[in-house]
Amino acid sequence: MGNQLFARKPLALLLEEMRGEQRLRRVLGPVQLTSLGVGAIIGTGIFVLAGEAARDKAGPAVMLSFVVSGLACLFAALCYAEFASMVPVAGSAYTYAYATLGELFAWIIGWDLILEYAVSAAGIAHGASHYFQDLISIFNVHLPAVLTDAPFDYDPALGKLVATGKLLDLPAMVIVAMVTVILVIGIKESARFNTAMVILKVLIVLFVIVVGAFYINPANWKPFAPYGLTGINFFGKTLFGQADGGGQPLGMLAGAAVIFFAYIGFDSVSTHAEEAKHPQRDVPTGIIASLVICTVLYMGVGAVLTGMVPYHQLDINAPVSDAFRQVGLRWAQFLVAFGALAGITSVVLVTMLSQARILLAMARDGMLPPKFFAAIHERFRTPWKGTILTGIFVGALSAVLPLRILSGLVNIGTLFAFVIVCAAVLIMRRKYPDTERPFRVPLMPLTPILGIATCLLLMFSLPADNWYRLIIWLLIGFAIYFGYSRHHSVMKRYQAAAAIAEAEEVSQR
């Protein structure tokens, strides 16, 4: 059993799986991959969570929060790029962990990626819902109050969960259902839809920066860091910085831990390596280009947002469009709300698209039932069953859980995944030094070490509740692994076949 838990999947076996009828269609070039990356990144993080991070955590220092989060992602992105160029198959960090750390760690990271993609899609759908409601409110149209949000939320002033008087978030559920239908149709059609949405929301972000710059009041940037430049705690015990009434950390680093959600998505490019025309070249280009583009845009939006409106007056649900309302630009509010709605919806698409590919990779390895999760539609060539199940799960989460809980859970899960990827690069360089690497992480071993350090720093800048939820999620995952996955693993059969072959060879000598 011990050997199986830490058995690494050979690179030759990974590459062999790309051949055959169950492989995905190669239709994505560098522009489409970069578009998918930008589409996954620019969304709820900048259009929604920027308001929460500025108002509740960092103040105008949220601009530095974007820089810190961006650096953490840059280190991880370089590690992702090396792996994606070496192993251009579906599965992302799950596949990389299987090839380097063994089956148990692969399961942990795969289970963790479900937390990242599915739960983040639910949180993103919340963001789309609020901008939809902001958009129709301009025309004095309002949904029944009980159908506009989750039934409870976290109140920073009280430091606890409180009832909202709502029943569920209906618009979020509808948006998820529409995206699910689009994804079942096919990756090529999904990429075309996403490209159009990416162009639209990038234009909206540029509009926010350019037009909003004329309404900046430098006085709103003072004090620049009202909660300080730190905000680190260890399971509820504040180590550096301040804390709110519930013991949650405050400060620039605490803001970076929240705003980290804004960068989630660049790694989704690597989940589509099997569908890239030239994965060794195009996947690293898509990862790094999308991250750099978004970092520059984020810093501009952060500066404009806190310059237009005092940080403590920012709206939590739709801060960007509401900022234009507060300065009297109702027409700009409409454009921003419309663009944000379209842009955030495209992020729901990309994250759910990636989730289905993670499930596909795990099912191929026997970790999940292959007849369901690895089933490829005969016409559309998409993992349609896994996509539909993902849509049901995401829709249910988006209906009843508040954004603050969803985003915190996603952040700590994603940061944990990034730590594993950075560590795996160090292991791969030592275990397989001669393997071809079309893209190599620069400044080894400094880059992955910095990636591990910065991600851990942000993990300890999150509230203790997020750690407890992560532990519970992992315990559920262990129950599934030891109850099903370990017994149906492809590696178990592979090891058994290898043992038989070795025994026959010995007997013939």
Could you explain the architecture of this structure?
With 509 residues, this protein is mainly alpha-helical. It has one domain (2-508): Amino acid/polyamine transporter I (Up-down Bundle). The chain contains 19 helices and six strands. It has helices at 2-5, 11-16, 30-41, 44-58, 62-86, 93-100, 103-137, 170-185, 187-213, 252-259, 279-308, 319-326, 330-364, 370-373, 384-400, 403-431, 446-459, 464-488, 490-508, and strands at residues 152-155, 160-163, 232-234, 237-240, 242-243, 249-250. A hairpin with a 2-residue loop joins strand 3 (232-234) and strand 4 (237-240). The mean pLDDT is 83.
Could you outline the blueprint of secondary structure elements for this entry?
Blueprint: H1 2-5, H2 11-16, H3 30-41, H4 44-58, H5 62-86, H6 93-100, H7 103-137, E1 152-155, E2 160-163, H8 170-185, H9 187-213, E3 232-234, E4 237-240, E5 242-243, E6 249-250, H10 252-259, H11 279-308, H12 319-326, H13 330-364, H14 370-373, H15 384-400, H16 403-431, H17 446-459, H18 464-488, H19 490-508
Antiparallel strand pairs: 1-2, 3-4, 5-6
Helix pairs in contact: 3-9, 3-11, 3-13, 4-7, 4-10, 4-11, 5-10, 5-11, 5-16, 5-17, 6-7, 6-16, 7-8, 7-13, 7-15, 7-16, 7-18, 8-13, 8-15, 9-11, 9-13, 12-13, 13-15, 16-17, 16-18
**Number of DSSP strands?**
6
Please summarize the sheet with the most strands. Answer: 2 strands, antiparallel
Radius of gyration: 22 Å
Write down the overall mean pLDDT: 83
| Separation of the first and last Cα atoms | 29 Å
Number of domains: 1
Briefly note the structural class of the backbone.
Answer: mainly alpha
Molecular shape: globular
Identify the CATH homologous superfamily. Answer: Amino acid/polyamine transporter I
User: What is the CATH C level class, in words?
Assistant: Mainly Alpha
Strand content: under 5%
CATH architectural grouping: Up-down Bundle
CATH topology: Amino acid/polyamine transporter I
* Helical content (DSSP H or I, runs of 4+): 55-70%
Strand order of the largest sheet: 1-2
Q: Note the run of SSEs as H and E.
A: HHHHHHHEEHHEEEEHHHHHHHHHH
Number of helices: 19
Which regions have little confidence, pLDDT < 50, spanning 5+ residues? none
